[in-house]
Specification:
The protein has 421 residues and is an alpha+beta fold. Helices cover 38% and strands 18% of the residues.
């Protein structure tokens, strides 16, 4: 196509890494609120997940980009005592997410759709259709007695059965999830990762609630603009997936942004789909970052994109039976010198005070010695961040022996054998 810029795969990869913050300088001192804002400006959100075998997903992107930091930075920004000081809120962005409060108006169309029973999923929509009186009662309870957990609410629902057909959730929990999706309530805090719900107007800063609500089309354009900034270069599917937009609405937003010059149409060698470049994207000559990546990091959460960018076929195996897992339960890709060089299955054994490498695998074309040395340094940092005293390596995977040697650990869990996937 005449006039369309062509990018090499290597250039596209560097653009994507820079857009996600991996070309930014590391903090000179302890990371603070400014660094948190910088990362959120690059990622747009932090995806949440309940799995805590190594560390919860929403804490990991900051460690990947900033190194050792105080997780209280995230806690205070998301669940601080004063609404005026809150900078993050929970909602459905790319799955359950922590998002900058300024994004709230851009997601009100999704809340309105949920209220109209046009968006959401089975249980919460069903409870609103079938038991609207329960939803109204739960909302009144939160209004009168909040903040409350789902368990505290359920205990007060005399005569309701305590189980439900929705993931074994109580009726109160399902009603709360509908109210959460529709924006009527939000997360005031968390207790052992359990949501504590309150009315949205008592949680978010008043200045955010007072922001005008854009049209659905304008809001979706802005969401795609955020996705484009965070991706650097991306396909239409990549862009709409960032905030889980519908196919037709994502396509319309992309077309509109191309028409006004907010996105630049490009071709990437080897990509089957057309690509779009953010005008502010930069392609550094080299990206030398070293990082462990969460399975839910925006750099790798869309597996087809991860394959396109890095030639890295990635599958999360949490829900795969143990005997059928190839690489492990909670496997993190390892980024080094602009490529995904390895993958490691990690477990924080907090009782024993050690970070366990359950398996370690080298990616084709990567040097085992160099990769093992770089990974050993990152694992030591991860152990420090987790408050763990040592790193122990299980003898599983073709990188396990080189990693053990690089760590120089006097302790190993068993004999020096390796397995292949």
């Amino acid at each position: 196509m005449t006039g369309v810029e062509r990018l090499s795969p290597a250039t596209a990869r560097r653009i994507a890494l820079a857009a996600q913050g991996f070309a930014s300088p590391a903090p000179a001192g302890a990371p603070d609120r400014r660094h948190l804002r910088r990362v959120l400006g690059q990622t747009g959100l932090l995806q949440m997940d309940s799995v805590n075998v190594f560390e919860r997903a929403h804490y990991l992107p900051l460690f990947s980009r900033l190194g050792v930091y105080d997780k209280g930075l995230v806690e205070r920004a998301a669940y601080g005592p004063r609404p005026a000081g809150r900078e993050l809120f929970e909602y459905w962005g790319h799955e359950a997410s922590l998002l900058p409060v300024a994004t709230h108006p851009l997601l009100r169309w999704r809340m309105a759709r949920a209220e109209a029973l046009e968006e959401g999923w089975g249980g919460p929509l069903r409870v609103m259709r079938d038991r609207p009186e329960l939803v109204a009662h739960v909302l009144r309870r939160v209004e009168d007695d909040g903040p409350l957990t789902a368990g505290e609410l359920q205990a007060s629902l005399r005569g309701s059965h305590t189980g439900g057909p929705w993931w074994d959730w109580s009726p109160a929990k399902v009603a709360l999830e509908f109210l959460f999706w529709s924006g009527r309530v939000t997360t005031a805090s968390r207790r052992s990762f359990e949501r504590v719900y309150d009315l949205t107007e008592r949680v978010l800063p008043p200045c955010v609630l007072a922001l005008p609500t854009p049209t659905r089309a304008d809001a979706q354009r802005e969401l795609v603009r955020i996705a484009a900034r965070s991706h650097g270069v991306a396909t239409e599917r990549d862009l709409r997936d960032y905030f889980r937009l519908r196919v037709d609405e994502g396509a319309a937003a992309v077309r509109s942004l191309v028409e006004d010059g907010s996105l630049l149409r490009v071709d990437v060698d080897g990509w089957k789909q057309p690509a779009y470049l953010h005008p502010a994207a930069r392609a550094p000559r080299r990206v030398s970052a070293t990082a462990l990546l969460s399975p839910f990091d925006p750099l790798v959460w869309e597996r087809a994109r991860t394959s396109r960018l890095f030639g890295f076929d990635y599958r999360i195996e949490i829900y795969v039976p143990a005997a059928k897992r190839v690489h492990g339960y909670y496997v993190l890709p390892f980024l080094h010198e602009g490529a995904l060089r390895a993958r490691v299955d990690l477990k924080s054994d907090r009782k024993a005070g050690v970070l366990k490498v359950m398996s370690a695998w080298l990616e084709p074309g990567s040097d085992a010695g160099e990769t093992a040395l770089a990974l050993a340094g990152e694992l030591r940092r991860a152990a420090v961040w987790q408050g763990l005293a040592d790193v122990l390596v299980e003898p599983r995977g073709d990188l396990a022996a080189p990693l053990l040697a690089a760590l120089g650990s006097p302790r190993r869990l068993s004999g020096a054998t390796t397995a292949s996937p």
